[in-house]
Fold this protein.
Amino acid sequence: MIFSRLHLSAALVLGLLLGTSPVPAQAEGMQLAFLKFPFGAEKQEEEKKKKDEAPPAEAKKAEKDSKADSKKADAKKEDAKKVAAAPEPDKKPAKAAPFKPYDKDWVGTMKTHVATYDDMFVELARKYNVGYVELRSANQHLDPWIPGEGKKVVIPTMHLLPQAERRDVVINLAEMRMYIFKTPGKAPLTYPIGIGREGLQTPLGQTSVVRKKDGPSWRPTARMREENPALPVTVGPGPDNPLGTHAMYLGWPEYLIHGTDKPYSIGRRLSSGCIRMYPEDITKAFGMVPVGMGVNVVDQSVKAGWVGDKFFVEAAPTTEQVDRMEIDGGLPGYVFSNDDMAIIMKVAGEYADDLDWSVVRRAVRERRGYPIEVFRKPDPVKQVAVEAEAVPAEKTAPKEDAPKEDAKKSDEAPKDEKAAADQSQEQDAVTKVADAESQGND
């Protein structure tokens, strides 16, 4: 058999070379097979090697299953992370700590100054960081230009807070004063300001600081240049800049809080609507007030507040009265509106009906610009004694019990003295608190 195959192969090769085909028809199948595998043994070995190297079907299936399991595990991990990050259904997200406002009605403490021959109110105002008009209002009996040597000048450095939310920056136009609530729960820092004159009033309402500039340039408005064509187009940083050294731009276009090259204008209505500050004050405010802080501008000439058990009313001249004081030196006139009365009654609370309104009206009429005591809560011990004296006559103790009644009064006397001493100590404590809190205002 082997010999026959070799014979046929040799004949086939010889036929191909000679161009003949001596191979019988039955050998065609073998001829085709031979052409397909010209290197039979080597080719078979190569195919076997490929077959051995190819991964079996089970290995492929196992690898595929492993990848699928890995993807499922990763998906479970991601689901676990989402569940952990999400708040529990029965628990609400943690809320931010509530805002804590300053809980007292006043800031600062009163001072006095003994005048010398050369003293003038415009200079004393800057020395004690108050405004000219409020110093004038507090000392209506003195000449603002020549107070008189040895005269006592009241320095209004204690103020009741206006009825406004105690946060960020609060400006009260009537008293021409700014309050900066830098730290929640702490006493505000307060500074005198200059505001817009008649016809160019500083606007009321809420806005915010939108931009700040150290060394601003001043550009007169079209109205200013029309009134005074000699004004330059621009004034750069320097001692002659009307904006001073620093400026804080508000959300109201063309309105700023800035310094000034005219310190005597602080505490007066002389600006074109902007809010001016002493040069030394604007640098402090500039560093404390960030961009975005709110600014609330109110106009409250009458304020009220409690200092311990004492109730105070503070009345500043209205804007119209300020103009009169500036023009002819006249004193404020009596103005007491329903809004003023409503503020006083609201702050007095349950004691509103106990106020002596004649005393309240006098404080409002005088407009001195600093707190005036108009009421004091009754001392509990003394109140009990007053009520005991009001016992009807038929319940009065018999005459034979008089010595006992006298003895009782004798026993109560030391208690009354002790109560009075306690009240005095309490008032001293209130004064010390006011003094301590006012030290941070500078």
Summary: The CA atoms of residues 2 and 81 lie 75 Å apart.
